[in-house]
Amino acid sequence: MLGATDTATSAFFQAVNHRRSYSKVTASAPSRAELLPLVAAAARVADHGALRPWRLLELRGNARERLGAAFLAASACEGNDAVKLAAKPLRAPLLIAVVASRRVSFKVTDWEQDAAAAGVAHLLTLLLDDAGWGTMWRTGPLVRTGPVRDLHGLGDNEELLGWLYVGGIPEESKPGVRLSIDPEEFLGVL
């Protein structure tokens, strides 16, 4: 078992502690073959009942343009705002849609299944970062709209939790600014 000092210097601790989101990425992206082992590893997330209540969808090429069109269909944007909205999915060469795919279970509630799906998404961002890719988990008010649901082929038991925007890390990227917390404020004792 590692002590507090050993934990703070471990490679995993350092990777998590320095994680950041990349709002801008380059045009390179991991291939499907590169993604598959990362998805397999992310599937190790805590999952009560081993239901695997999630699925992921790759959006590349014109699938991102179709998502932009779904954004437009779901919004009241016009003119320049519509052009900007339609271009949002083009900010990265790869989007990974994160879908909570709830299973029927008397033991595992929907919120717990959604938490497992969110855990997969976050773990996948850490794995992508470790593999040298920039990621950002994006959501927004259009995530749960009809046109966006339809584009993703969601079933009645499914909810879209957003997209991981994935691409290369720009050479001139600035270090992320993440304010430190006082852990005493967030870790209570009963």
Short description:
The protein is an alpha+beta fold.
Give an overview of the whole structure.
With 190 residues, the protein is α+β, with helices and mostly antiparallel strands. It has a domain at 22-60 and 92-169: NADH Oxidase (3-Layer(aba) Sandwich), CATH 3.40.109.10. The protein has eight helices and four strands. Strands 1-2-4-3 form a four-stranded antiparallel beta sheet. Helix 4 (62-74) packs antiparallel against helix 7 (146-152).
- What spatial form do the alpha-carbon principal axes imply? globular
Number of helices: 8
Query: Could you give a short account of the major beta sheet?
Result: 4 strands, antiparallel
Unreliable spans are none
What is the radius of gyration computed over CA atoms, rounded to a whole number of angstroms?
18 Å
Helix content: 40-55%
Q: CATH top level of the domain at 22-60 and 92-169? A: Alpha Beta
Give the CA-CA distance, first to last residue: 25 Å
- Report the strand count: 4
* Average pLDDT number: 92
| CATH homologous superfamily (4th level) name of the domain at 22-60 and 92-169 | NADH Oxidase
User: Strand order across the biggest sheet?
Assistant: 1-2-4-3
- Strand percent estimate: 15-25%
Summing up helix and strand content along with how strands pair, one would put the structural category as: alpha+beta
Order of helices and strands: HHHEHHEHEHEH
CATH architecture of the domain at 22-60 and 92-169: 3-Layer(aba) Sandwich
What is the CATH third-level topology name of the domain at 22-60 and 92-169? NADH Oxidase
